[in-house]
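## retry 2 of 3
previous attempt timed out at serialization; input unchanged, resubmitting
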Amino acid sequence: MSILIKPIITEKATNDSELNNRYTFVVNKKANKLEIKAAVEAAYGVAIESVKTMNYPAQRKTKYTKKGLVSGLTGGYKKAIVQLAEGETIDFYNNL
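## retry succeeded, writing output
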């Protein structure tokens, strides 16, 4: 079971990482905070102070179009915000 799925690289997450040294990841839904902390420490070799998690449920959406009623479903996911220790950083762009 892979704990870390992908990092979230949005404007808000990048600003949070530059100002507050917090990084955001999409993680496995069944992973707890201790597993997330161990996975980030092993993958990036950094020291972690705290982990905050959020569960986003699946959302159903419907639209009225020319073809009639169209319905869709966006998948749910779990997001983790990791606070690194002072002086630690993660570089997502070193493999480009």
